[in-house]
Amino acid sequence: MKRVFFIPLSSIFLGCFWGCSTTQIKHNENYYQRKLCEKLGGVMEYRLADTTRVDCLTDEYAIEVDFAKKWAESIGQSLYYAKMTGKKPAIALIVGERDARFLKRLHQVSDRCNIDIFILKKEH
Fold it and tell me: What is the SS3 assignment for 43?
């Protein structure tokens, strides 16, 4: 059965979550990947024999980290990385206030493919 986790990336509020101005600093995918992997005690950018890289490899999961609009790409990558590592497939989706539609789409497919989801709230 698929599991969904909400992962707070820090115990300290680092920025606003909703309604931020566009002048505030936005973080790239690598920022979220690093924070998640540190929190889970995983290996970041784990290189496979074919030179592809798992964003975060833990004892349990092969995790693909992507922004919400790349939800569809993340499915194939997580399934491939899981197959190649023998770990469970998982996706860490970075979501903002306008990304509910992407998360809904991912949930529909992840239910069928048994992919666990880590939800990372976008920081600004």
Answer: strand
Q: How far is CA 62 from the centre of its chain?
A: 10
pLDDT digits (tens, 9 = 90+) for 46-72: 999 999 999 999 999 999 999 999 999
**Which residues, in sequence order, are CB contacts of 54 under 8 Å at separation 6+?**
43, 45, 46, 48, 62, 63, 64, 81, 85
Q: What is the pTM of this model?
A: 0.79
**Residue 61 in contact with residue 86, Cβ under 8 Å?**
no
In one-letter notation, the amino acid at residue 49 is A
Quick check: 91 and 106 in contact, CB under 8 A? yes
DSSP secondary structure string for all residues of 58-119? -SSEEEEEEEGGGHHHHHHHHHHHHHHHTSEEEEEEEE-TT-HHHHHHHHHHHHHHT-EEEE
Amino acid at residue number 91: I
